[in-house]
Amino acid sequence: MKKGIIAAAVLVLVLILGSNCFFTVRENEYACTVRFSKIIDTTETSGLHFKIPFIDSVKYFSKATQLYDIPPSEVLTSDKQNMTVDCYILWEIAEPLKFYQTLGSTSVAEQRLDALTYNALKTAMGTLAQADIINMEDGSQRNEIYENIAIDVDTLAQAYGIRVTDVKIKQFDLPDSNLNAVYSLMIS
């Protein structure tokens, strides 16, 4: 009777250890094996992988291109006029080890991308007059601005293991004070 209980307990223990020895990686993700807060292995190969039970943990990061809709922010043009810029950024994790070591999570990455993009927008819009931005009829000029901003943000984001694929401005708005002035001119 005792041998049966011991055998059942050993079997349960082996099943628990066995189930904690393996982890799966999907095709659309990276997996980082973490031991005592340090990454010991990074894999992007999908399938079943081994880890030491109860010592190693696994962090998963998406390989997919991610969209981050940046909250609208105000920028100053070269003629010292405020404009509100609403934009989004497409990005992906290029180096999961560097990403985990420098940022650790997607939410922190989005905060960092928000700051990097805002600074690039501020720099780019600071070289243009408000009238030029509003009256930009040639789409190639806008695309050139977008490309330059994306290149600037991508260059800075590489330090975090991030690749920025695109930055697009959805909308330029005049601040409320300018809209009130335009509205009062239209009524007059």
Task: Summarize the structure in words.
There is one protein chain. The protein has six helices and eight strands; from the N terminus they run H-E-E-E-E-E-E-E-H-H-H-H-E-H. The protein is α+β, with helices and mostly antiparallel strands and 188 residues long. The protein folds into two domains: 2-62, no CATH class; 66-187, Tetrahydropterin Synthase, Chain A (2-Layer Sandwich), CATH 3.30.479.30. The strands form three sheets. The chain has a three-stranded antiparallel β-sheet, covered by helices on one side. The protein has a three-stranded antiparallel β-sheet with strand order 6-7-8. The chain has a two-stranded antiparallel ribbon with strand order 1-4. A hairpin with a 5-residue loop joins strand 6 and strand 7 (82-93). Helix 3 crosses helix 5 (139-157). It is rod-shaped and about 90 Å long.
Largest sheet: 3 strands, antiparallel
Query: Shape, please?
Result: rod-shaped
Distance between the termini: 100 Å
The SSE string, one letter per element, is HEEEEEEEHHHHEH
What is the CATH domain class of the largest domain? Alpha Beta
CATH fold name of the largest domain: Tetrahydropterin Synthase, Chain A
Radius of gyration using CA atoms only: 25 Å
Structural class: alpha+beta
The total of beta strands comes to 8
Helical segment count:
6
Please bin the fraction of helical residues. 40-55%
The CATH superfamily of the largest domain turns out to be: Band 7 domain
Total number of distinct structural domains? 2
Q: What's the architecture of the largest domain in CATH terms?
A: 2-Layer Sandwich
Strand order of the largest sheet: 3-2-5
Mean pLDDT: 83
Low-confidence spans? 181-186
